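Fold it.
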Amino acid sequence: MTEAISSKKIIDTLRENLAAINATVDRQEASVVTEVGDGIAHVSGLKTAMAGELLKFTSSATGRDVYGLAQNLDVDEVGAVLFGDVEDIKEGDECRTTGRVMDIPTGHAMLGRVVNPLGQPIDGLGPINTTHRRPIEFKAPGIMDRQPVCEPVQTGLLAIDAMVPIGRGQRELIIGDRKTGKTAIAIDAIVNQRRTNMICIYVAIGQKASTVAAIRESLSQHGVLDKTVIVAATAADSAPMQYIAPMAGAAIGEYFMYNDEHGNPADAEHPGGHVLVVYDDLSKQAVAYRQMSLTLHRPPGREAYPGDIFYLHSRLLERACKLSDANGGGSLTALPIIETQEGDVSAYIPTNVISITDGQIYLQSNLFFQGQRPAVDVGISVSRVGGDAQVKAMKQVAGTLRLDLASYRDKQAFSQFGSDLDATTRYQLNHGAHMMEMLKQQRYSALDVRDQIIAIFAAKEDFLDDIDLPNVNLFRDGLCRYMAERHPRLRSSLTEGKMGQETQERLKVHIAHYKAAFLKEHPNKKRADVEANAEPTAPAPAAKLHQE
């Protein structure tokens, strides 16, 4: 009897102990590298590997681990791209599956830092202390999780904020030939966010390390580095690193969009953040992806790009959105940059990205070399959704600005074929030239939206037409300072809604008052010359006239 009781206790104790055991099975499949080169590794076997899965390679020479991303899933082998110290991996080294996708560290600790696409700091300022991680590939929000673009992103550039406005959650392409000011526009837009609540992500793809260092220094000098993350895959980095750089930047930005300021998931009561992401530039990412695909023996398509190059950019840019209020109302605004060759916007990659984005800012090299900076070609530049987020007074005064400049371009072209122009044409040419001059801006000289409204209003009401062209920007900047110092209430009211008739009349009076004082210091040279030449002279002798 005692033995039976003891046996039962033993069995019960064993059952309790077995039930308390929380055993987990970590299943990994291992194989060996059969071929490696150009940042690509071919691994035999790995039947359970999934597309996009993170693979762990162990170097037999150093014992260090190098990670890769499964790309090709063939019958007998897996083709993977390698990150990190790829020269450590040799033929015969071990490779294991991990069962997870690639992710990178994110969080507020990333602000002010320069990291590589793996999230590792490369600025020499020590490690980044963060526990948050996000996958580099993430499904874009669905239709019901979004809301229409309704808030503006002010770049501080008059030509863009007036004619090609950008809204929070929009995808606005910046496109043009090399050395036409594409990066300058993006950096100016980032610098102008120093007084807003927007977090900025700058993704440098295939650029020189010295260029990235100069951009970091510029952001630091203008006080915006502490709210910016720079993700850099330089020209010295491998093609796989340049390939994942934009996705890494999007993942870092999504952390701020989907979470509140304390890092908790955003909802209706805890709003998410607003992020501006610049991809500089996606042309180099496409070239890197083409290099990877050709090395992986994927069939080439148009211009030797793989067939899924469109899907690569579309799934990246679809992650930019304005979330619904139920999801926190955060936003991720994307400014992708594309470099064209000789102004050819009909090439493969430019047409792909144009069709994906919500508009494009086209920079023309001829305008740039003529001194028109930013060199925005208003004829083919467009913003499809940004107008809904534009300040009402700005929309009111800038509504016909594009048409006025287009008319000026037409008249300018025809005026080259003849000198006999009627008074209306001469007025339009003079007015258009002053409008174009007003749109010029130096780098890092952003204009407040209220000052932009005042400047455009003054130009449309012909206050600039009798000012010498070299003095137009001097007049514009002086007028903005005058209104800020002397009439701050009127200036502040410009962002509250449309301008009424009374507001417009008051603006005209103040602008005329400032213009009178300005012309005393900077008189119109043409008018002064005309008045000087209009002085009466003695009549010529009759004989002289006869000889002539």
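The first strand starts at residue 30 and ends at 37.
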